[in-house]
Amino acid sequence: MEAVATRAEVVSSEDEPLILVNSADEAIGSLAKSACHDGAGILHRAFSLFVFNPAGETLLQRRHADKRLWPGFWSNSCCSHPRRGEDLIDAVRRRARDELGLAVQLEFLYKFEYQASFADVGSEFELCSVFLGRSSDRPRINSTEIADWRWLRPAALEREIERAPELFTPWLKLEWQRLCHDFSDRFAADRH
C-alpha cells in the first residue's frame, strides 16, 4: 500500500433506512439497514463500484473489522446503498467521495440480484447496480470504513480469487466474473 492520507468519518449507520425493492427494482418501502441484513435478508437496492486508474489497475478495499457482514474481507472499490430520494449516480459519487476521497467518472454496466449469508450473523439480499469508475486521483481512505486498500492489475486479481476465494466478499467474486466475461474491453486492454 502506498503512503496516502487517511481520515476517519462516520458515513453510515445500522439504523440508516435502505430502499426495499422488488425484483423489477420498484421501490416498495424502506427499512433500517440492520433489519435488512437480519436472517436471510430483505431485498434492497444497492450498488457496487470498481474504480480503475490510468495504469489499468482496480482499487480493492479490505472491509473494516467493525463491519457486521464480511469484516476483514477484500472487496471491490466501494459498495453501498442509495438513500431515499437520492439518484443512484449521485449515491455512487457520494460514497466514492466519502469512502475513498475520489472523484470518479462513472459508467453503469449491469444490474443483478443476489443473496449471500454470512454464517449466522446475517445476509445480503440485494438488487445491485454495478458501475465502472475511472480516476487519476490519489485515494484519501476513510479509516472507519476501510481497513486496508491496494491497486491490483486485473490478471493478478483473477489469480488471487482463484487461489484464495475465501478472502473475498461473495459479491466481488460474482461481479468480477461477469466483468471479466462481458466487460473486459471496458476496463483493460491487456488483462494478462
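Above is the first protein from milestone M3; the second protein from the same milestone is given next.
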Amino acid sequence: MSIYDFVVKDNKGTDVPMSDYKGKTLIIVNTATGCGFTPQYEGLQDLYEKYRDKGLEILDFPCNQFGGQAPGSDEEIADFCNSRYGVTFRQFAKTEVNGDNAEPLFKYLKEQKGGVMGSKIKWNFTKFLVNSKGEVIDRFAPTTTPEKLKKALQEVL
C-alpha cells in the first residue's frame, strides 16, 4: 500500500487519484474555517507560493469533526478561504479524519506517523509531510505553524 493507491474527492466532487501527485512533495492538512488555528491558512499559502515551483503541493481537507468548526458546504468553505486568505492550493471535500468513517487516506497517514496521540488526530490543522517518493516523512501538531515547517520542507524538496 502506498499513498498513491488512494483516490479522494476534491471540493467539486471530482475523484482525484493521489497518483496525480507522484514526484511532488506534499503537505496534507485537515483544516477548519472557524478554528483558532484558521489563520494558518495564510502561512500555508505563503509556503505554497514560495515552494510550488520546487514541487510543493498543499492538499487541504476541511474537517468538521472538531467542535463543528468547519460548517458550510465545500463551496462555502472554498469561498471563505479564497476571499479571506487568497488560498490557491487544492481544496478537497469535507472529510472525516477519525473514527469509523475516516477517509482511508487519513487512516493511512495516521498508520505511517501516529504522533503523540497514537493514531488519532487531535485537532484541526494537523499536517503531514510527504516526500516526492510518496513516503510520509513527518507529522506536525496543530500548534506547529506553517512557518515552522520551512526547515523540514527545505530538506525534503
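Note on the second protein: DSSP finds four helices and seven strands in the chain.
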